[in-house]
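User: Hey, my collaborator sent me this sequence without any context and asked if I could get a structure. I don't really work with proteins. Can you help?
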Amino acid sequence: MSGFVSFVGSGPGDPELMTVRAVKRLKAADTILFDDLSAGPILELARADAELVAVGKRAGRPSPRQDHVSRLLVDFAGTGARVVRLKSGDSGVFGRLEEEITALREAGIGYEIVPGVTSAAAAAAAAGIPLTRRLEARRVQFVTGHDVTGKLPEEMNLAALADAKATTVVFMPKRTFAGFVALLTGAGLSPETPALLAENVSHPDQKLTRSTIGALARDLRADDSRAPALILYGPLAEG
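Assistant: No problem. I've predicted the 3D structure and written it out in structure-token form, which is a compact way to encode the shape of the chain:
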């Protein structure tokens, strides 16, 4: 007997930003494997008898291996359970979704993907700005601030990332942003390019800091906060 897995994007953290389908799947689940950023009040929507399994990964903290998480999905679904894999934001955006889908396909287990509000959209909404701007920002690009080693990715399209006419969103940016900005300015982007640092988006302790990429690069060198964050830069970040 094989169960079914729903990959559910929980949004940035506020339960009110979850989709109707996401809430339905969460309430119906027998087992929920959740990330750290999908915990808290979101899990209050689960059934009282649902099995909750923490599998979150956070930088600098002990975390379960990806192959272990994938194995858990297969094992729980193999019992016939309705499983929810709860991921923060949208599970298809830097959420290691493909590895887990591959494991389910190899095991012959059915799945669905329930999209969620990405933190990029939530941050822009919280700041009262659009992600695109007519004539000035016709393109939006998402990039991760680090690779599997925690360092800046080696292969980056700097010409695209230094495009002053694009909105760029950097996920997990804090530890590497100073080095990233050095590459951007070396590629021609002005250090005065407007930027927005968004921390704990949609949570009660949300913090939005309007700045420039140059100033943020300096400030983040001394920042030891582990609050989840992302940085938007480009013409729209002026608000």
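In plain terms: The two ends are 53 Å apart (CA to CA). You can pass these tokens on to your collaborator as they are.
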